[in-house]
Amino acid sequence: MTNRTAVISGASSGIGAATARQLAEAGYRVVLTARRRDRIDALAEELTGAGHEAVAAPLDVTDRAAVDAFAAGLDRCDVLINNAGGALGTDPVATADPADWRTMYEVNVLGVLHLTQALLPALTGSPSGDGTVVVVSSTAGHATYEGGGGYVAAKHGAHVLAETLRLELCGKPVRVIEIAPGMVKTDEFALTRFRGDAERAAKVYEGVAEPLTAEDVADTIAWTVTRPPHVNVDLLVVRPRAQASNSKVHRER
Ligand SMILES: NC(=O)c1ccc[n+]([C@@H]2O[C@H](COP(=O)([O-])OP(=O)(O)OC[C@H]3O[C@@H](n4cnc5c(N)ncnc54)[C@H](OP(=O)(O)O)[C@@H]3O)[C@@H](O)[C@H]2O)c1
User: Fold this and answer.
1) 60 and 35 Cβ atoms separated by less than 8 Å
2) CATH number at residue 94
3) Ligand 1 pocket: which residues have CB below 6 Å?
4) Which SUPFAM superfamilies is this protein grouped with (predicted)?
5) Which atom of ligand 1 is nearest to the CA of 87?
6) Of all atoms in ligand 1, which is nearest to the CA of residue 187?
7) pLDDT tens digits for range 212-240
8) Mean pLDDT of 8-19
């Protein structure tokens, strides 16, 4: 595995940070990207301190020129984890702010497009002969819910990107894997969605016995990535037991 390189976007928190830890543990050199340099620097330090290979590279995935410069500076990429993303608000279609929809499209769809396009030459030419692109979409990429419009539309876009790319790369030594998590209790996802309102964010998980954790999702990502190269897990939907659909959640109280 030495020098096999995994690039992880959104590695400064939640699912991305947990995935970086698990892929480092699996023997990958991990390249940590996100906008918050202090967070990824600290994680790189933690991982190198534990004997792993890790480097931090601050990056805004919506900035195409920055993404291209980042890709040009990489000597190798075997695995790309497109994880950076998120939701803004729960406004109905009738009154939602188009600026929020644009922001969600930029990070959840164009961010994936930018990084994937920039790293595809490295992935198809990877010395291991086993390139892997992971798109962390969501169950919101497969069904809608009231108040979810902008996020659901964006994650459907991420889903379509993954499906289309898999068709287009068929015959090349690159797998395209989509991971679609349901409810995951991470520190920041709901907080970002509700613009820092901790009370509203906490309500998302209220009474749910065991929402998924970032580690649960990272575990599914690491499992798909570490299957033999000819095994392509096209789509993995993972939810907590208490959630049967985007709108059917069992709450204890
Ligand atoms: N939590 C859930 O319930 C859930 C469910 C299904 C799918 N997901 C998806 O899983 C992924 C990770 O979510 P999470 O729960 O771990 O949330 P999170 O902790 O809020 O993580 C989001 C990550 O994306 C990064 N990011 C946001 N905008 C970025 C940009 N423009 N450029 C680069 N990085 C950017 C953030 O880092 P910086 O702010 O440092 O840039 C952060 O590391 C997201 O795509 C989310 O949509 C989450």
Assistant:
1) yes
2) 3.40.50.720
3) 9-10, 12-16, 34-36, 39, 59-62, 83-86, 107, 111, 136, 138, 181, 183-184, 186, 188-189, 192, 214
4) NAD(P)-binding Rossmann-fold domains (SSF51735)
5) 47
6) 19
7) 999 999 999 999 999 999 999 999 999 99
8) 98
Is 151 considered catalytic here?
Answer: yes
Question: Ligand 1, from 189, 195, 203, 217: best to mutate by most atoms within 8 Å of Cβ?
Answer: 189
Coil vs helix vs strand at 120:
helix
- Expressed as residue numbers, the domain containing 122 is 5-249
Per the listing, tokens 């033999």 go with 228
Ligand 1 centroid – CA 106 distance (Å): 13
Q: How far is the CA of 171 from the centre of ligand 1 (A)?
A: 31
CA–CA distances in Å: residue 42 to residues 15, 25, 74, 219, 228 = 16, 17, 21, 22, 32
The percent of residues in the chain predicted with pLDDT above 70, rounded, is 99
Q: How far apart are CA 135 and CA 125, in angstroms?
A: 20
pLDDT digits (tens, 9 = 90+) for 107-164: 999 999 999 999 999 999 999 899 999 999 999 999 999 999 999 999 999 999 999 9
Ligand 1 centre distance from Cα of residue 73 (Å)? 24
3-class SS of residue 248: coil
CA dist 200 and 24 (Å) reads: 34
How many domains does the chain fold into? Answer: 1
User: Taken in order 179, 181, 185, 187, is the CA torsion positive or negative?
Assistant: positive
Q: What is the pLDDT of residue 1?
A: 46
Report how far residue 75's alpha carbon sits from residue 133's, in angstroms, rounded to the nearest whole number.
17
